[in-house]
Design goal:
Strand content: 15-25%
Helix content: 25-40%
Oligomer: single chain
Order of helices and strands: EEEEEEHEHEHEEEEHEHHEEHH
CATH architecture: 4-Layer Sandwich
Strand order of the largest sheet: 1-2-5-6-7-8
């Protein structure tokens, strides 16, 4: 469990593609002004991670809320609820559909407006121009991005990625800059203007959250940014998918 700011912790988990390649996953823990905690997402915890989480939160009693922000990150939803059964549970519409017996509260997270209950501590953003839940369930491009207002740290699943080697290679090879999801082409809405909507969303987000010091990406690392780094890296990420966007424009107008 990494403490990244005065009241923000990130926990790195393991997620293996085909049981081999670890692309990582994560959850974050945020302490509010009243001393209680909010958990963002869920991941598998080893004994040391679980003990650290429980020690920080009075054996889970201080965890007030759990918010799941990616519709396809569902593997650890039930386990996280069993670990923190008294926490108010929020998720996307797909979480509710997958686990209808869990005690979901309020509106789906992707529908939250600027005046939502956590506006004092978080900002939320949903990508424009892409389907939030794609018919092809292998496409996990969209999620609800979360920015912690006091620290400026961003928690994100899939929509933005940081490629980082695992194991011993991590010490020898640098992690990548921020990248868009590799299946962006399959998520863009099949209509005129969708590519431009996506670009406008990405640039607008980078401008609004320009002072972001850290991006915690589920896949596969924490990215520390210098001043102005978010805007530069978002522009770089858009440049890397420019052909994808141009092909969409050529096909749909």
């Amino acid at each position: 469990m990494q403490k990244l700011a005065d009241r923000f912790w990130n926990i790195r988990g393991t997620y293996r593609v085909a049981g081999v390649l670890n692309i990582g996953t994560h959850m974050s823990l945020v302490q509010r002004d009243d001393g209680r905690f909010v958990v963002l997402d869920g991941c598998g915890l080893d004994d040391a991670q679980r003990d650290a989480l429980m020690a920080l939160t009075d054996n889970g009693a201080l965890v007030d809320t759990v918010i799941h922000v990616h519709p396809f990150h569902t593997m650890h939803v039930e386990a996280t609820h069993r670990l923190l059964p008294k926490a108010t549970l929020h998720g996307t519409a797909r979480h509710r559909k997958r686990f209808p017996n869990l005690p979901w509260s309020g509106a789906p997270v992707e529908e939250w407006a600027d005046d939502q209950a956590f506006a004092d501590v978080f900002e939320f953003s949903v990508p424009a121009g892409v389907d939030f839940v794609c018919v092809d369930e292998r496409v996990h491009v969209a999620s609800v991005l979360v920015r912690h207002r006091p620290s400026g740290i961003v928690h994100v699943d899939d929509t933005l990625n940081v490629l980082a080697p695992q194991g011993a290679l991590r010490r020898m090879l640098p992690q990548s800059s921020l990248r868009m999801h590799p299946l962006l082409a399959r998520a863009l809405k099949p209509k005129a203007g969708a590519a431009d909507d996506y670009v406008a969303w990405a640039r607008g987000l980078a401008a609004r959250w320009a002072d972001t010091p850290v991006v915690c990406a589920a896949h596969s690392a924490v990215r520390h940014l210098p001043a102005g780094g978010l805007q530069r890296e978002m522009e770089g990420a858009l440049a890397k998918v420019s052909r994808t966007l141009d092909r969409h424009r050529a096909r749909h107008g």
